[in-house]
Amino acid sequence: MEQIGNMIGWETVKMVIGLIGVLAFVVFNALILTWAERKVAGHMQRRIGPKEVGPYGLIQPIADALKLLGKEILTPRDVDKPLYCLAPMIIFVPVLVSFVVIPFSSSLLVMDINVGILVILAFSSLSVFSILMAGWGSNNKYALIGAIRSIAQNIAYEIPLLLSLLPIIMMTNSFSLKTIAEAQSGLWFIFYQPVAFLIYFIAGVAETNRTPFDLPEAESELVAGYHTEYSGMRFALFFLAEYTNIFIVSAIAVTFFLGGYQGPFLPGIVWFLLKSYFLVFVIMWLRWTFPRVRFDQLLNISWKALIPLSFINLLVTGGLLKL
Amino acid sequence: MVERIKTELGAALEGISIAEVNYRERGYHLSLEVAAGALLKVARFFDERGFYLSAIICVDYKEYLELVYIFSNHTSLCKVKVSLKIDPAKPVAPTISTIFDCAYWHEREIREFYGVLFDGHPNMTYLFLHDGIDSYPMRREKVPVSDEDKRALGSSRPGEGEDTFFVNLGPQHPSTHGVLRVVLKMDGEYVEEAEPVLGYLHRMHEKMAENRSYQQFLPNTARMDYLGPMAFNLGYVTAVERLCGIGVPDRANYVRVILTELNRLSSHLMWLGAYLADLGALTPFLFVFDDREQINDILEPVTGSRLTYCYFRFGGLYNDVDETFITGTKAFIARMRSRFVLYDKLVSGNVIFTNRTRGIGVISKERARKQAVSGPVLRGAGIAMDIRKMEPCAAYGELDFEIPVGTRGDALDMYHVRVREMENAVKIIEQALARLPEGPFMTEKVPKKLKPPKGDLYHTVETPRGELGIYIVSDESDKPYRMKWRVPSFSNLMIFPELAKGNMLADAVAILGSLDLVIPEIDR
Amino acid sequence: MEKEIFPVKFAVVEKVLDLARANSLWPMTFGLACCAIEMMSTAMSRFDLDRFGAGAFRATPRQADLMIVTGTVTKKMAPVLTTLYEQMPSPKWVIAMGNCAISGGPFVFEGQYNIIEGVDLLVPVDVYVPGCPPRPEALLEGFLKLEEKITGTRRFPGPENRW
């Protein structure tokens, strides 16, 4: 081990192990979240979710995954093959990159880049490309309408996302997520910036296309939105990317506003996971409670309400910091 | 009202024979016979006096085809039947769709089922049937469709424009509408034109009615509207009883009212769940089904089925209700009142819901009259007409309930009207339970083979969706000669294209949901 | 059901895949008529279909593997049904629910001109669930029979081999 480390460079080995860990966590997280979604939905709807497949339905996601693996790989006739086949692969790039910079605990961090949050935000804009490729390449009107709605929504809500994180960055003078998490050893930032937390949370839910902002996949109108024509493993990749995005949004909210991995008694990673999964539960709770917001109302919320509010918040924070 | 119309008619139009008939036996007050030239004048006469066109029916008497127009009034009870005889070899008639918009689809239906060509109708193409059918289905003898007719009927093809594209909403729906296909011409997110395509569930009920005796047709009535089958059952049974002059004991009448109102509750609950599922809130759908299962638990021991009830019989009921039913219903009513509070808190105050439905799909009173909408849609538009008050059947005349009316005519008003109708249904059930008399549940001496006297009857009943009209022509045999079902969803759907124009796709879906359509009754 | 035939059989892998497929059947929302309401009731809180893993109703045929034909198939609807069936990727299954889907139901009479008497004239059917409409328990039994058809073993003991 020492020799390998000295040959290649210790940093590289650490990075490779970190990446493998990230991949494992992504898969593990997706399995848990698919199970949790159906159980949470079930209990909120006065029934039990999956129960027969293993104790408490815990093997259900594995059955789902195996079934999707065993499906026929179907490429519809008139699709644009390069776009159609590349879209599900490209949607994973921002997800994996985001995991590289999120601190799971004070020592579990693949790489501490000093412009951490900028990397995440920049790469998450790339997911828009993948959706457009999926929608256009599918040669299907529903997919196209869904993709166009999704792009408009994503672009509109990226701005309040960034603007609501800026006050925290101004307060800690750093883009690195680890520094921001460390800076909350006194009082969590949510008490300093409650408005920013709300704006970030709403914008985050909109970014991941979850109800009440899930018009791009509106089932009653558009069949299934931008992944209408995808089946089998390709669909599973879209599914995986969506659930991982939910986790990333919650993880960033935890790191910026809820103290990251800080907490008494239990090790850092346990606190981190507890807080993140609590926020994930809140996002799922929203899905099963609210109806869908109409598209122009959705854009109005972003442009007319969230962006001015986050600007005002930013100005007030800047003013207070100066004093 | 009837006298006034009769004198005004006599004054306005000469050469038309007006007969006053026995309303109890026939279901309408006046009967007019017109020739083709005078039809438009008569239609305009009724339009000016605020009547609406309830139904257009075509009956095939072998020597001639008769077109029957039933005009009805929202404010006072006055029904007029106008009949026009046409030649079966070359059936042609003038269209009245320029005066009454709702005639547009009625005439298309008669065109494809009977072969009657309506002069001046803008679009005589297939509505229900598929391309290339060989004969006119509802004619008594096999009358083949000529080739040029086939071409004319099957010639509707949408044309793509420069900036617009076509999107199909259905026939396979992720939501619960059923097999309705709406061809939307879209400009980006906005709908320019909406054209519903029907007939994906045409199950030939009217043709079956001519081949089955009155008793054998009873199960069909429940399958026409599977969400409100009791009301359809009630309408059919009371229509035939009226035609044959069979009386019904009081206990049976009260039980009929209780069961129909339970069914109305169940249907409106289902509408609520489906509407919210359309808008994206999936949880109330499951809560609603919980309530429906409670209703099924009450109805199943009494009627024997969970969905397609066939419980009313000519002269009364199939079997009596017992103590379990009464205690069960009382417990259910108590529970339901607390559920209303729950739904109110969950839905009525929700900002997203009100934003999605306020100001969407506004129906004015004039359009409601011209398109002959009925039921909660009509009351949401502001016209307070309920057939349970205007022409009560069973025990409705002795019970006290109110008619909720909306003010703006938008989708939110329809929601409030239906919620209040649910509360009124609970009130009616409570009263009927309190006044339930003892006694027989079935008249004695109902003949095994029912042979009603010769004549016709137009009978209306209020289903959860609106006005159901049944027109029966009897020729003294034990099978009906013609039975036409004027279903509420058919007329309610006719107003959808003009409401959807200019709205976004999401709004079009919300409007479609607020009309509460059930497709099997449209397609019959 | 359609499966591709390979020249070599991997017994254990096939068994595991079959188990996975049986426990994760995703139906497509294809409600035609009255039986659709009973199918919805089966998916709701009292008779929860999600217990067996089959609760995720997908709207698009590409992501579904089970088509439950609930209701009468008319001649106008028949090409739509076959197109949807073709769009589903294999392995796929069909349950014919209700008398109308099995053989035309109560709408078969002399001189009928518009319905298809039984959906098995259009697509291969795996399980027939009779009734007009069948009770939700009947549809659940149909599901269990389909799972038995896929895996070869039955999940709960049936009434005939209870004692």
Verbal overview:
- The complex is a heterotrimer of chains A (323), B (524) and C (163).
- Chain A has 13 helices and no strands.
- Chain A is an all-alpha fold.
- Chain A has one domain (78-322).
- Chain A starts with a helix and ends with a helix.
- Chain B folds into two domains: 2-146, Beta Polymerase, domain 2, CATH 3.30.460.80; 205-523, Cytochrome-c3 Hydrogenase, chain B.
- In chain B, strands 1-2-5-4-3 form a five-stranded mixed β-sheet, covered by helices on one side.
- In chain B, a hairpin with a 7-residue loop joins strand 14 and strand 15 (482-486).
- Chain C has 163 residues and is α/β, with parallel strands linked by helices.
- Chain C starts with 10 loop residues before the first helix and ends in a 12-residue tail after the last helix.
- Helices cover 31% and strands 9% of the residues of chain C.
- The model of chain C has no long low-confidence stretch (mean pLDDT 85).
- Chain C has a four-stranded parallel β-sheet with strand order 1-2-3-4.
- Chain C has a single domain, classed as Rossmann fold (3-Layer(aba) Sandwich).
- Chain C has helices at residues 11-22, 35-42, 78-87, 99-103, 136-151; strands at 27-28, 66-70, 93-97, 127-129.
- In chain C, helix 1 runs antiparallel to helix 5 (136-151) and helix 2 (35-42) crosses helix 5 (136-151).
- Chains in contact: A-B, A-C, B-C.
- Chains B and C meet through helix 6, helix 7 and helix 10 of B and helix 2 of C.
Q: What is the N-to-C order of secondary-structure elements of chain A (H for helix, E for strand)?
A: HHHHHHHHHHHHH
Q: How many β-strands of chain A, per DSSP?
A: 0
Q: How many structural units, i.e. domains of chain B?
A: 2
List low-pLDDT spans of chain B: none
The chain-level structural class of chain A is: mainly alpha
Strand content of chain B: 15-25%
Number of helices of chain B: 20
**Number of separate structural domains of chain A:** 1
CATH superfamily of the largest domain in chain B: Cytochrome-c3 Hydrogenase, chain B
CA radius of gyration of chain A is 20 Å
CATH architecture of the largest domain in chain B: Orthogonal Bundle
Helices and strands, with pairings:
The complex is a heterotrimer of chains A (323), B (524) and C (163).
Chain A: H1 2-8, H2 10-44, H3 60-69, H4 81-90, H5 92-101, H6 116-137, H7 141-172, H8 177-182, H9 194-207, H10 219-222, H11 232-257, H12 268-287, H13 295-322
Chain B: H1 2-12, E1 17-20, H2 23-26, E2 30-34, H3 39-48, E3 51-61, E4 64-73, E5 80-86, E6 92-94, H4 103-114, E7 117-119, H5 147-153, E8 165-169, E9 181-187, E10 190-197, H6 205-211, H7 218-224, H8 229-244, H9 250-279, H10 283-303, E11 312-313, E12 316-317, H11 323-348, H12 351-357, H13 365-370, H14 376-380, H15 387-390, H16 411-434, E13 455-463, E14 466-474, E15 482-486, H17 488-494, H18 496-500, H19 505-514, H20 519-523
Parallel strand pairs in B: 2-5, 6-7
Antiparallel strand pairs in B: 1-2, 3-4, 4-5, 8-9, 9-10, 11-12, 13-14, 14-15
Helix pairs in contact in B: 7-8, 8-9, 9-10, 9-16, 9-19, 10-11, 11-16
Chain C: H1 11-22, E1 27-28, H2 35-42, E2 66-70, H3 78-87, E3 93-97, H4 99-103, E4 127-129, H5 136-151
